[in-house]
Amino acid sequence: MCPHQPSCPSAEALDREAARTMASHPEQGWSLLCNGVVLFEDTGELLPDGAVIEPHRPLAGVS
To answer: Which of 26, 29, 44, 48 is the most buried (most CB within 10 A)?
Structure first.
């Protein structure tokens, strides 16, 4: 579990990306968050249960 106070959002929460970074590997394009989520620089995610969240960065020039 998360040792931070207040606790980081869980991997199931909609705001899961707000969890603190525990390990960062920018040269490889990913970070491990406190809640076990692997966050990729393209905004894709790998959840602890193996589920994949497709990249969801905003599209440039769309208004």
So the answer is: 44
